[in-house]
């Protein structure tokens, strides 16, 4: 064992034994190096590794202190055997905790005066400048004056649903299935929504055109890349066609591109790139690619909606927290975001390939599945007469966690045989075994259902 690992083991042992408790200061680097007969660099390396594991934290010019080690070290019984296809947050092992901590510390210094006053409703102008620069990388060309910083992209969606639009229309069109939180906002605000089918080949364009023509559609909500829950991404040709239909029938589009940063194909454009008129409202979030608790997003709002959106934002929360905005600004301007994105794209692309290969290898006939490219989402449509609830309960006892997609449908589109797979938090080495267990579970339930039919 390397010497610095012995130092780590010693500190962890003291934590577990109660010698070091929450908030206690660790021995000084010099004193521990003398006690353990090792170099100063060895102790420094050990303490830095403990900090990366979030077991200790450093206070400049004071030393290292213990975090809540009971929470940090606790492992639930059987946790190591769980295969999590249910959680949809970003991979916790790839989160930029340390870099963002530095950004937070700098933001406190840079914006210390602003923390005691109300800020700009639209968001810090300096952050919007950085966001406009970053958006160019995903082919969204706009100016800071059109960017609104929001408390997660969901806030922008929730506000836009209820706003009056220049076209004077009142109904909403959404893909089916679609994000459950979008449907929750629609229900909560009592807005009438029409659904349009999205299949493994994309949205039904004929159905969409009929809705635009006859449904009094104010806006169409779409996730154009790495759709939730199907994992589908529109082609550039499909995006152009949808924008043309929106222009023809005077419909606005909300393009939710919250996973667009994960797209490794730089030839794929957002719908926003095909609409110079401002008919496409572009939204994105930093929750799925960075830290879910950050709750920061943006919306590119056309000038004719600026005033009404600003009033709605003010009524919702006055302004998005300044400290979070400042930290994101520093994170972007120092190039940390681009470095992090490269890492995330690599991780999720690898996971997506693992999932695709495992589905082809194991899933039985009659099971329909999508092929994701982001590493986040895919769907399974189970063969009749199985339901998602049956499979979820059946495999939950084996440590395979699944999510039904039934809450992602409008009532008239309801399906109970669809499972959403998310591999964002599933360990890559467990994906193959997880799909194999799902395939076995499907076969077992089919056999059981046939026996019941024969018995009847």
Automatic annotation (TrEMBL):
Task: State the UniProt keywords alphabetically.
Answer: Aminotransferase, Cell cycle, Cell division, DNA-binding, Transcription, Transcription regulation, Transferase
Q: Where is the HTH gntR-type domain?
A: 1-69
For this protein, the Enzyme Commission number is 2.6.1.39
Q: Which PROSITE patterns match?
A: HTH_GNTR (PS50949)
UniProt cofactor(s): pyridoxal 5'-phosphate
Q: Which GO terms describe its molecular function?
A: 2-aminoadipate transaminase activity
Q: Which InterPro entries match?
A: Aminotransferase_I/II_large (IPR004839), HTH_trans_reg/aminotransferase (IPR051446), Tscrpt_reg_HTH_GntR (IPR000524)
Question: Is-annotated flag, keyword Transmembrane helix?
Answer: no
State one Pfam family annotation: Aminotran_1_2
Q: Which top-level group of life is the source organism from?
A: Bacteria
Name any Gene Ontology BP term.
Answer: cell division
Q: Which PANTHER family is this protein grouped with? A: HTH-TYPE TRANSCRIPTIONAL REGULATORY PROTEIN GABR (PTHR46577:SF1)
State what protein this is by name: 2-aminoadipate transaminase
The protein's organism comes out as Paenibacillus allorhizosphaerae
